Structure formats: structure tokens, C-alpha cells
Amino acid sequence: MDIQVKKGLLEACVLAALIRGDSYGYQLVKDISNVVEMSESTLYPIVKRLEAAGMLTVYSIEHNGRLRKYYRVTDSGRERLRGHQADWENIQRIYRFINQEDEND
Amino acid sequence: MTKAEFLSSLRGEMSTLAIPKDEVDRSILFYSEMIDDKTDEGLSESEATESLGSPGQIAREIRRGLGIGGCFRDKLSALPKGLLIFGFPLWFPLLAAAAIVVMAMFLILWAMMLLPAAVEFALVAATAAGIIGGVWAISAGSLLSGLFTVGVAFIAGGMFFILLAPVMKLAGWLARTSLVLLKWTLNLFAKEEDDS
């Protein structure tokens, strides 16, 4: 997949995963990798950016004698995800064009 | 690689790339946790570190993510507001000087517009005054000086009409130029649209 296209989708994937419930880094990598390939080094800049933009917050919970960082989506993050979801119609239309399905229009 | 070796290598690579300290610490925390989670799940330390890729590559990606001015942008946002206040004697006079220059440019343009207008106005006034004065002089008996005055009035009137078209053109050009200048000035303060 084109890397630019993928970058845009991964951000939405992270938000969508967090809507289902708060999660931590490794769990996010696992869950999202079921749908689209994502590595830890790809996840890191995404959560960094989302946190800087106020779309998720971070908190720590003790686990096995160490602290584990959890991410929680914010209202602003939910709104951003809604924006991504609303793009679906447009994306489908664009792909019809790319796939040359509307040759006879 | 062991976890310690990986993290130490990552730290070293990031320092080489002059990544700011707080960013280094943040990324080390992230990857340390990632390794812990993987080993919790049953992977060995070497498997865990291997799955993350090379520290050099990770460091380069982080550096790239910070962008060209990234280091400075991070440092700038960490600047205490106090510095802005202390720097006031420096940046304020510069800003004020720039503002005065821009205002001066506008004033010059408007003065250039007022001058022809003033000339035209003066000609109208001369025409009117000349006609009134001349007619009065004639009726008071000074035919020659009265006629002379009326004559000058007509010359003034004529000049008014001759100059009218060029003056309007100049006024139009000056109005457009000041509008362009205004837009340009406002653009300096406009934020760039980002469609991310």
C-alpha cells in the first residue's frame, strides 16, 4: 500500500481502536496489525502526534511491578474519527474513478 | 541484543542526531515498555529487540518526524513565557519599527491621492471665485480687470476639466495599489491553511 495513504489510515485506526476501550502500546500494535501492518516504530509518532493534538490522553497503571502507559481517546479525538468516517463516501467515489468503473458516466 | 543494549544503543543514536533530551527520554520510555510487554508475552529479550528493528533506523525516523526545524520548534515551545517578557525591549521596538514603516507607506499613497484632488479642488474654487469676482468687477465699472478675472476663471475651469481624466486614473491606480499593499500586509499575519 502506498505509504502516504497508509499513514492517514493508521491514525484513524489508532483512534478507532481506542474508542473500543483504553489500550496500551503493544496491545494497539497487535490489534491494528490484524487489519493492517503496523510496527512499533510506526505507532510511536502517531500516538505522539495525537497526544500533542489533544486527541488522546495518557495515564499509567502499575503492572507486574512496572508502570504501563495507557492511552484514552478524548472528545476531540472522537470528533476526528467521525471526520475520518465521514470521508468514506468520498473515498469510495474516488476509488470508483481510479478503478475506472465510471467509464460510461 | 538485550533490552539494556538496545536502549543504550538507541539513546546513543539519538544523541548523535542531536535529538532534544526530553524527546530522547520519551522514546526510550516507549520502547522500554514495548520490550517489557513483549517479554511478558513470552518472547525472549533478543526476540523482542529484534522485532523492533535497528536503533539507528528508529532514531532516524524520530529525527525525521521532528522535521527540519524540529529541534528548535521543541525548544521554542519549552521556552518559558518569562523569556518573552524579558525579550520585550528587543522584539517590541523591532515590531514597532516595522509597523511604522508599513503605516508610512500607506500614508504616502494617500498623500499622493490627496494632492491631485487638492489641485482639482483649488481649480474649482478659482473658477468660481474668478467668475463671481469678475462679474462683480464689471458691474462695479472696472470692465478690463473684470473681464481679465473672468478670463482667468475660465482658464482655471478649463484646466479642471483637462486634468479631470488623468486625476481619476491616478486615483484609481493609487486605490488599487494601496489595496494590494493592504492584502500583502494582512497575509504576513495570516496562518497557513493546513489540510492534514
Describe the structure.
The complex is a heterodimer of chains A (105) and B (196). Chain A has 105 residues and is an alpha+beta fold. Chain A has helices at residues 3-19, 25-33, 40-52, 75-86, 88-98, and strands at residues 23-24, 56-63, 66-73. In chain A, strands 1-3-2 form a three-stranded antiparallel β-sheet. In chain A, a hairpin with a 2-residue loop joins β2 (56-63) and β3. Chain A is elongated and about 60 Å long. Chain A starts with a helix and ends in a 7-residue tail after the last helix. The model of chain A has no long low-confidence stretch (mean pLDDT 91). Chain B is built from eight helices and no strands. With 196 residues, chain B is mainly alpha-helical. The two termini of chain B are 38 Å apart. Helices cover 86% and strands 0% of the residues of chain B. The chains are: A alpha+beta (105), B mainly alpha (196). Chains A and B meet through α2, α3 and β3 of A and α2 and α4 of B.
Short description:
The complex is a heterodimer of chains A (105) and B (196). By secondary structure, chain A is of the alpha+beta class. Chain A has 5 helices and 3 strands.
Keywords:
heterodimer; A: 105 residues; alpha+beta; three-stranded antiparallel sheet; 59% helix; elongated; B: mainly alpha
What's the SSE blueprint?
The complex is a heterodimer of chains A (105) and B (196).
Chain A: H1 3-19, E1 23-24, H2 25-33, H3 40-52, E2 56-63, E3 66-73, H4 75-86, H5 88-98
Antiparallel strand pairs in A: 1-3, 2-3
Chain B: H1 3-16, H2 21-40, H3 45-52, H4 55-66, H5 70-78, H6 81-86, H7 88-139, H8 143-189
